[in-house]
Structures are given as C-alpha cells and as structure tokens.
C-alpha cells in the first residue's frame, strides 16, 4: 500500500509544487493523476520514488518511510518502485531481454564487469515479465527495432521484473496513437490489478483515465481538487482541475454518463385530454 499524508514539496528556488497532498492507494488499485501541465503530477511521482528529496509530511510504501530514508535505505526502496516514462527510457542498442533484465540490477549485491550475466532466477523473472505483456517473442530483438507500443510494453515488463511494490507511470501513453494508447493503458491497468500493485498513472487523456482506471485524483496548482471514482468527474470537477483561472465551461464529453431518457409513457397513462384553453401540440410540430 502507498500512503501519502500532508505531503509538501518546495523546489530549491522556493516554488511550492505540492501542498498538503493526501493519498492512499491500495494494493492492486489503479489511480490516474490528472491535471494541467505544471500542476505537480511529475513532481509527485518523483517524490514518491525519492528522486526529489526534502519533501515534508509522510510518504510510505508498505510501511517503509521514503522521506526519512538514508541513501542505502532509499536505494533498497527504489529497486522495488517500477517507473514507466513517456519516452520509455530503454537502452536502444540492447536486446529486449537485457532491457528487462536491467530491472533486476537493483536486486543484485554487486554489479561487476559482467553486468548482463544474470542468474537463472533473474532470467525466469524476466521471461515471465515479458510474457505478461505479450512480448516474449521479441526477447532477442534490439530495443531500437521496436514500435512505440512495443517499447512501452517492454518498459512495463522491466518495471514488473523489479517485483515492484508500487508502479509509477508518467504520461505512459502520451507518445502513442489513440488506439495503441488505449491498449497499452488497459494492459498496464490489468497487470497492476492482477499483480496487486498500487499504481499511479499521470495522464492527460481524461476519457482514457476514466475508461481504464479505478480512481481519479485531480491536481491543480499542487493541491488535490478531486479524489474519487471516475463517475464523479463532473463538469465542476473538470473546471476546478483545468480551468480554475478561466471562465467556467461545459466539457460535455460524456465523462459522466447522463441519465438514460425516461421511458415513453404507455398509452392509457397519457396526460388528460387538453382543454380548449390549453391546445395540444401536434406531434413534433409547432
Ligand atoms: N526543478 C524545478 N525547479 C523549480 N520549479 C520546478 C522544477 N521542476 C518543475 N518545477 C515547477 O513545478 C511545477 C510542477 O511541475 P511538474 O510536476 O513537472 O508538473 P506536471 O507534471 O503536472 O506538468 C511547475 O510549475 C514547474 O514549472
Ligand atoms: Mg509532468
């Protein structure tokens, strides 16, 4: 479980990027983080895996304190935080298998000159991880031979190979076309649920977030303005998230399903016949 309480982060230049963030993500729960550019989404993920230091409040992964961790303790925590980037961050000239195996590097006691000689157990984990994303058939291909969707699947496999206790994905489908975005995000969410890993996904595409995630956390100017089920994303919430400094507008994007139209009245239950003073409107015409 990932637990965040009263998290505040101020950049060295004095800019307060996160203010009093409270968020608990259960095992297997997939939570989308939405918000305008600059809202603080990436800063939040970087605080969770300790890339930004100096945040205050409390931040724990399975009870382990991230904010108070020393260098060694932090490295131990980080090796089981799976991070998925928009631009994949694969090593292009290496094979798919070696890229996934690199997710095991943090688990090895020493990294000597034979960096890519991994024990059988690590290889089994890498094979299983590639199977989970349907990419085992590409294991021996170089990463630079893959399409964008395949690269992102490999980076999901690399995160899985870490045996993660939390998965953080920063705009993981922003470089993919709409069809692929949906497939890759749905796969990531399904795998996270199956593996029981709490997962945070920064995402710009609200419809996709609603479709694939269990929960939505909306951030504006470093503050959580909504945290709840996708069905609660009303126009008000979307305006607070995206248009807090602009005129209110109706998003009308079908994010919140409208109530189904009432069934037409059955014959016999129709209103009483109109009087002369209240003329009936002829069907559909005025
Ligand atoms: N290194 C930094 N120093 C100062 N301000 C920063 C730094 N990195 C990001 N910021 C600012 O923090 C805010 C949040 O940034 P970020 O977390 O990247 O937003 P998002 O991912 O939601 O687009 C932005 O206003 C950004 O300009
Ligand atoms: Mg960002």
Give the low-confidence spans.
267-286
Strand order of the largest sheet: 6-7-8-3-9-10
Q: What value does the average pLDDT take?
A: 89
Spell out which ligands are present. adenosine-5'-diphosphate, magnesium ion
- Gross CATH architecture: 3-Layer(aba) Sandwich
Percent helix? 25-40%
Question: What portion of residues belong to β-strands?
Answer: 15-25%
Shape: globular
Q: Could you give the distance between the termini?
A: 61 Å
- Pairing-aware structural class of the strands and helices? alpha/beta
Would you kindly provide a written description of the structure presented here, covering whatever features stand out?
This protein is globular. The chain is α/β, with parallel strands linked by helices. Helix 4 (120-132) packs across helix 5 and helix 5 (148-161) runs parallel beside helix 6 (178-195). The chain has one domain: Rossmann fold (3-Layer(aba) Sandwich), CATH 3.40.50. It has eight helices and ten strands. Helices cover 29% and strands 20% of the residues. The strands form two sheets. The chain has a six-stranded mixed β-sheet with strand order 6-7-8-3-9-10, with helices on both faces. It has a four-stranded antiparallel β-sheet with strand order 2-1-4-5, covered by helices on one side. Bound molecules: adenosine-5'-diphosphate and magnesium ion (MG). Magnesium ion binds next to helix 1.
């Amino acid at each position: 479980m990932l637990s965040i309480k009263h998290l505040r982060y101020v950049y060295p230049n004095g800019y307060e990027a996160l203010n009093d963030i409270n968020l608990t993500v259960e095992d297997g729960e997939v939570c989308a983080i939405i918000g305008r550019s600059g809202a603080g989404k990436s800063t939040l993920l970087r605080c969770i895996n300790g890339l930004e230091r100096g945040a205050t409040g409390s931040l724990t992964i399975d009870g382990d304190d991230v904010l108070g961790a020393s260098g060694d303790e932090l490295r131990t925590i980080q090796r089981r935080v799976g991070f998925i980037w928009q631009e994949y961050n694969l090593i292009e000239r290496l094979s798919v298998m070696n890229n996934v195996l690199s997710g095991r590097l943090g688990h090895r006691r020493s990294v000597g000159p034979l960096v890519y000689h991994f024990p059988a157990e690590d290889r089994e984990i890498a094979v299983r991880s590639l199977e989970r994303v349907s990419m085992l058939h590409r294991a021996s291909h170089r990463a630079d031979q893959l399409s964008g969707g395949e690269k992102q699947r490999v980076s999901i496999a690399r995160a899985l190979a870490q045996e993660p206790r939390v998965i953080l994905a920063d705009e993981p489908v922003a470089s993919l076309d709409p069809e692929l975005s949906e497939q890759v995000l749905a796969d990531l969410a399904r795998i996270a649920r199956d593996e029981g890993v709490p997962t945070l996904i920064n995402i710009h595409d609200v419809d996709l977030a609603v479709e694939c995630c269990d929960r939505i956390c909306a951030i504006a100017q470093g503050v959580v303005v909504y945290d709840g089920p996708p069905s609660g994303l009303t126009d008000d919430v979307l305006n607070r998230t995206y248009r807090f400094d602009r005129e209110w507008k109706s998003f009308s994007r079908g994010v919140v399903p409208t109530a189904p139209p009432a069934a037409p009245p059955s014959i016999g239950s129709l209103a009483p016949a109109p009087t002369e003073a209240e003329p009936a409107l002829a069907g559909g015409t005025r």
